[in-house]
Design goal:
Elements (H helix, E strand, L loop, with lengths): L9 H11 L4 H14 L5 H11 L3 H9 L11 H10 L14
Helix pairs in contact: 1-2, 1-3
Length: 101
Amino acid sequence: MPTETIFLDPRRRRLLFRAHHRGTKEADLMIGRFVATHIAGFSEAELDALEAVLEYPDVDLADWLSGRRPVPPECRSPMLDRMAVECAGSGAGLPADLRPR
C-alpha cells in the first residue's frame, strides 16, 4: 500500500483495505488500484457510492470491470461506470510502467 495511506482517515483506510482484499487477485488489482488512486480525493458522497460498489460479489465486479459482461442496468451507478472506464484498458490494476503497450 502507498505510504500516504497512513494519513487517511479511518473510513478511507477501511475502504482501501476492502478494495485490496477482495478475495480474488484480479479484483484486488483492478479495484485496489482504482481506489488507491482516488480515495484521498473522494467526497463523502463518493465514499458512499464506493461502499455500495464494494458490496457486489467479486465475480460480478471482475466481469463488469474487465468488460467480459455488461453491467446490468439495475446495478449501474456513476461510481461503477467510472471504475469500468478506468479498468477497461489492457493491464488494468497494474502500474502504468508494467502495462502492455
